[in-house]
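ARCHIVE CARD
Drawer: 12
Card no.: 0347
Subject: one protein chain, sequence and derived structure
Cross-reference: see card 0346
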Amino acid sequence: MRKASRPPWVSRRQFLSVVAGAAAAAMPARSAAQALTLPEALTDAGSGFPALSEVEGSRTRHTAPASASRIAYVGSFTSKSRNACGEGLSVFRVDAGSGAWTRIQLLADEVNPSFLALDPRRRFLYAVHADTDQVSAFAVDPQAGTLTLVNRQSTGGANPAHLALDPSGRHLAAANYAAGSVAVVPINADGSLGVRTDLVTLTGEPGPHRTEQTSSHPHQCVFDPAGRFMVVPDKGLDRVCVFRLDTATGKLVAADPPFVRTRAGAGPRHVGFHPRLPFAWVINELDSTLAAYRIGASGALTPVQIVASIPSTFTGNNTGSGIVVSASGRFVFASNRGHDSIGAFRVDETGGMLTPIAWEPTGGAMPRFIGAGPADHLLYAANQNGDTVVEFDIAAATGRLRRTGRDVSTGTPVCVVWR
């Protein structure tokens, strides 16, 4: 038999996966009595994949129908200025039975598709492109999940770092990191992007960091769960700004008060909200802390606590990056670049304060992004310099993270969203 050879454009991991799959396909089918018994780790209720079931006390593996598969969209940095090896915007099919990721589409012409968002009905995907002034709209094929470019619009400022859709799905907000502004772009009925309806420039005294805080740097724009307010952490000004969106005009209106100050040099980056209670938490990039806030009726943020995002025993350099609040609201997770970890924190639901639980390594360098998975107990880390997306299981009772072993190799990943 001739030995299979690996084409130069296929990675060793992909090649071995294909060979193993072919070998498995060549084996004779087993009868029901010979059904393979799965290891305990693959059949635990925490796996999140419905193709695994228990039959009269014995655990067996069943083939999941194609409709049970999920689609993951992965954005990446692609430019030389980012020292990136990303290839563009990738679409993966994730098998519901095995958890295996298969890339089914690559949009290689997309430059730095660094943050992604689906519309409420999941018919369209939107992406901002770092180091440009562009935001793009893509139509989602309802069966395959693949993407087709609809159009692009300018965000009115350099380096849009984040985007968010309002609950109606009719407006898109983008945080222009380098320009120090927040844009609003209307979304038409056909999913296309219209001409910008607002552009708010953030002004104020920069923070003390000589290189990271030379001017306003809004890093994120997020609507609260009720859709009443939009919160914008400004890393450059050491402020967390609050706006209300006038959906009739597409204009942003500053809340009263319009912002809350952080500690000098904190560098607020991202925010997460409790799903039901009036609490929010901000991860501060520059001083590696988490700040807890109570949200008032007008959207005013009142700080109630600051806690380190890294363990006290870590003496190296670190910057905070992402934050995720569990669907239950009982836990907050924060990612650290340098310590290369995700910290888990327990929420006191009477006051919103956090208590550290544990830190779990992300299995790769520079976890720029963390995000919830298609099931509430799954969490994903995108290791920017590790070229991996790593899956974790969240223990419902304790909030501790466990790496599942389902890692995905992909160049310079910086965002993952699910359909």
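Annotation on reverse: The mean pLDDT is 87. The radius of gyration is 22 Å.
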